[in-house]
Amino acid sequence: MWGFSFPLPGLGGILRAMRHMRGVGAVVAGIAAMVALSGCGGSGSDEAKPASSPSASNEAVDPKSSEPEPSVEYPATPEGDIDRLADEKGWVVDDLYPAASDFVADTCESMPVSAVDGASRPQWLAESGNMDGDGKAVLQARIPKLCPKWTPVMKQAVSGRYDRWFGDGTYVVSSKPAAAGEDEKTIPPGMYQARGNIKDCYWERTTKSGDIIDNHLATSAQEITVTIRASDGQFTSERCAVWKPVR
């Protein structure tokens, strides 16, 4: 067959041709022409579609973000035990100390010199602020482990039943200790004694209005005793060493 090509007629031309044709052959020819015509105009539905962009859920995940935090390792020492227990309990000590064990160690080291300012050791421990907040729980749990010889001092401080000693200064006479953070110092009524190589010791008892009830100046003495009454207002001591209650 020869490879001739002819332009296809439009739909109107096909219909006009079918009017002049006779029989089944005309109908078949018309249908074939219509089918050929309908296939000439592509709809473009088979055109390639652009690839969809990957969703955010398929983005790469940084493996470092899912790694668990490394666990804290504590040395197998009394100090390590203190820090582990403090972390487990959530105990917090003063920011001055890097860890709970440092706080306990500093407290233990301070015990031998804690009375230099005229306070008994349990008094110093109870009134120095070391037992504020979680400090009390930390010291109760770990002084017996780290410095056991100071355990009795710690127990007295916790109980509140301890001797209060008094150095130089002016004290308000009261059975109740001053609240933490207050500048006012208090001394309970009772009999007190100062001992040692005392030089130029002066003491006085005054009323609440400041009138002198009794006073004394000892240029040299080995022992001085004074009784403070509940009705006294203040007690003042200068250069008298440490006053300790007489039992």
Kindly list the characteristics that best describe this protein.
247 residues; alpha+beta; six-stranded mixed β-sheet; 7 helices; 6 strands; disordered N terminus
Biggest sheet layout: 6 strands, mixed
Rg is 50 Å
Distance between the termini: 140 Å
Percent strand equals 15-25%
Element order: H for helix, E for strand: HHHHHHHEEEEEE
Helix/strand/pairing category: alpha+beta
> Low-confidence stretches at least 5 residues in length (pLDDT < 50)?
1-9, 17-29, 40-49
Number of strands: 6
Mean pLDDT: 79
Query: How would you describe the shape?
Result: elongated
How many helices in DSSP terms? 7
- The helix fraction, in percent, is 25-40%
Describe what you observe in this structure.
The protein has 247 residues and is α+β, with helices and mostly antiparallel strands. Among the domains are: 78-159, no CATH class; 169-245, no CATH class. The protein is 31% helix and 20% strand. The chain is built from seven helices and six strands. It has helices at residues 11-19, 23-38, 78-89, 100-110, 121-127, 135-146, 151-159, and strands at 169-173, 186-187, 190-206, 212-228, 234-238, 243-245. Strands 1, 2, 3, 4, 5 and 6 form a six-stranded mixed β-sheet that branches. α4 (100-110) crosses α6 (135-146), α5 crosses α7 (151-159) and α6 runs antiparallel to α7 (151-159).
